[in-house]
Write the structure tokens for this entry.
Amino acid sequence: MIKRAILFGGKAIVSVLDTTQTVNKAIEIHGFSRSVAVAMGKALTVTAFMSGNFKGAGNKLTIIIDGNGAGGKMVLCGDFGAKVRGYIENPRACEDADAEVSQIVGKDGALNVIKDFGLKEPYNGLSQLVNGNIDEDFAYYFTASEQLPSAVALGVKMEGDECVKAGGIIVQPMPNCSPEEIFVLEDIVSNFTNVGELLCEKSAEEIMDFYFGHFQISRLPDICEEYLCSCSRDRIESMLITLGKEEALEIVRSQGRIEVGCEFCNRKYVFTEDDVKRLFE
Ligand SMILES: [Zn+2]
């Protein structure tokens, strides 16, 4: 669930996210190690935030975080309405000992955001990773690439292999926000050192009221974020058609069938020789 509100009569927007279900769904699909679950949980939370802000039904984004960490490359997608999905190269990285998020993500690399608004050219933003902790990396990205200085606090609390609570608090001041108001907001967000822990004590709704309720708050509609993959047999069929009849038939003949797996949800799509022939009829 994403709770959002406008502060100071329009000078800042605050979002409080509880992404526990989404993160647990991702753990169920990918079997993340505990450390990877925390890193991917944070990344999925920020993806939910960004795709939750989309205004148009077809809007979508892809985030690639490549920091040369133990987890390898992270790929995240978000569709309009905060429908998110993601995968990481090494889902079981550091499974023997708990590692810091920055060890999983790595610090030596960049964060790439591609936003597709259905225009000719997608928006493409690139920023260097700051410390591989995801919070600061995205705070820097929003400031440098989107000119939206933002305070970002994300957190995932694990118990065993399960996520007890995951979420985030993100504040974006608008250009008309005064330095004093920005200072107050940044000061509040800097106290959120463990959002997962905080969400165990207070609901997203209570966090919104308790910390931001006294800043001339006006609420925006809630958004229901969710782990949802957009893959379908139709989509794989179009892929095979792009591949071409000869190529597709050759794979079927050498391997007996074509099997395409979705990296985001692990669903498998199988095409027999008859399927392929029918496809090109
Ligand atoms: Zn899928």
About this structure: The first helix runs from residue 20 to 30. The chain is about 35% helix and 30% strand. Residues 229, 231, 262, 264-265, 267 surround zinc ion (CB under 6 Å). The radius of gyration is 21 Å.
